[in-house]
Write a structure and sequence with these properties.
alpha+beta, three-stranded antiparallel sheet, two-stranded antiparallel ribbon, 5 strands, 32% helix, 11% strand
Amino acid sequence: MKTTLFKGKILQEGLGGFLCPPDHPMHTCHVKAARCGDMSLDAALECKRLHSETKATVRSILAKWEQEKRPLDAAETREWILQVLGYFRGCYCRGDGSRPEDWHAANVVINGIVRPNKVGREATIDRHAGVHLIRQYYPDYQPTADDFDAAHWGEKPI
């Protein structure tokens, strides 16, 4: 039985990108496709029923952002990093982090505030959920103790 593929339309409205870096297209775009519904750009790439032409457009949008993204040391990026670390404060994956399911909410434990120079089974930097998310966009990111100390979620502390 042949699967029907649906062409999607890119809409100028975000869907699913609240933890994405500044200016990321998931803040401002999503895909709508007949019988597939509305989906984030990431979800569109995984959708088996979405036409390859639509996926190519999504890849192009994401690649353009990747080429033009703000550097790690930009003020807006730094603030985003602190927000992500604050949102995931004390959250570490149970597994070794090598499989996507290691990062599912059910497999993340909250182990309190841990500074990057401390060592322990749950408290390694590579298993910190915020660091993991940041590295999806900035693979070379290396957190510092100052990053964890300044981390916050929501409004900047005074």
